[in-house]
Design brief:
By secondary structure, the chain is an alpha+beta fold. The chain has one domain: Endonuclease/exonuclease/phosphatase (Deoxyribonuclease I, Chain A, 4-Layer Sandwich). Helices cover 26% and strands 27% of the residues. It has helices spanning 15-25, 44-49, 116-137, 160-163, 171-182, 188-192, 208-211, 224-227; strands spanning 2-7, 29-33, 52-57, 65-70, 75-79, 92-97, 100-106, 142-147, 186-187, 201-202, 214-215, 218-222, 230-235, 251-255. Helix 3 packs parallel to helix 5. Its EC number is 3.1.11.2. Belongs to the DNA repair enzymes AP/ExoA family. Keywords: Hydrolase, Magnesium, Manganese, Metal-binding. GO terms for molecular function: double-stranded DNA 3'-5' DNA exonuclease activity; metal ion binding.
Length: 258
């Protein structure tokens, strides 16, 4: 079973690229972020015509997450995280799909830092950790997949100097991410590429893609029951180079026996 995460950076603008990727790679489950569309304008027919059932949590113009399942409909478990009732950002969607608990996550960017946006990012990460602990307690195969907007280690970026003041790489962001791993979640890409140098994002600015000036912020965290089934974890890097592509590349894990 292949489970992928893909920050699509606007599902209507990138729909041809998304459909190409679905057709060429046929993931069993795909978690999307930054769909940037309201619930009413989500292109559900195009997704269904591609052979996928889908649920989504939209927001006009920015944010928004979705979960796609090949040949069936995801069973929604939760949308949004508890802890801040006033938080109306569409950043979290959770479902049961094909015997796996899956969450599609779009974590706040946090820039500029320091400031209220960075404070919100850290609070959101605490809320995510609280929900992750609840999922953990169920002892089911589970994957927390998405754009975490965290560069976990220095070797996960093309340039420490270029990113040193960014919210993605602050000690507080990294520590919040490490707490998830210390709780027992497995970073799938890290487990297959411990020496780093694997990017999932290349900015549109500064000729970043041709220079391969990227960093790793799209992560798939596996519960023990999922980590025990891990076969591989990789990035579909070539899709970043296509015309009018997202600035992220799809990132995936493959699991056995589910």
């Amino acid at each position: 079973m292949r489970i992928a995460t893909f920050n699509i950076n606007g599902i209507k603008a990138r729909l041809p690229r998304l459909l190409e990727w679905l057709d060429e790679t046929r993931p069993d489950i795909a978690c999307l972020q930054e769909i940037k569309t309201s619930d009413e304008t989500f292109p559900v027919k195009d997704i269904e015509d591609a052979g996928y059932g889908v649920i989504w949590h939209g927001q006009k113009g920015f944010n928004g997450v979705a979960i796609l399942a090949r040949g069936e409909s995801p069973v929604e478990i939760r949308r949004g995280l508890e802890g801040e009732p006033e938080d109306e950002h569409s950043r979290y969607l959770e479902a049961d799909v094909k015997g796996v608990r899956v969450a599609s996550i779009y974590l706040p960017n946090g820039n500029p830092q320091p400031g209220p946006k960075f404070d919100y990012k850290l609070r959101w990460m605490k809320r995510l950790r609280d929900r992750a602990a609840e999922i953990w307690a169920e002892e089911v195969p589970a994957i927390l997949a998405g754009d975490y907007n965290v560069i976990p280690r220095d070797i996960d970026t093309f340039s420490v100097k270029a990113m040193q003041d960014d919210a993605l790489m602050q000690p507080e962001s990294r520590e919040a991410y490490r707490r998830l791993l210390n709780d027992g979640w497995t970073d799938a890409i890290l487990s297959r590429h411990p020496n780093g140098g694997v990017w999932t994002f290349w900015d549109y600015q500064a000729n970043s893609w041709p220079r391969d000036a990227g960093f790793r912020i799209d992560h798939l965290l596996l519960s023990p029951a999922a980590a025990d089934r891990l076969i591989d974890a990789q990035v579909d890097k070539a899709f970043r180079g296509r015309e009018k592509a997202s600035d992220h590349a799809p990132t995936w894990v493959e699991l056995r026996g589910i």
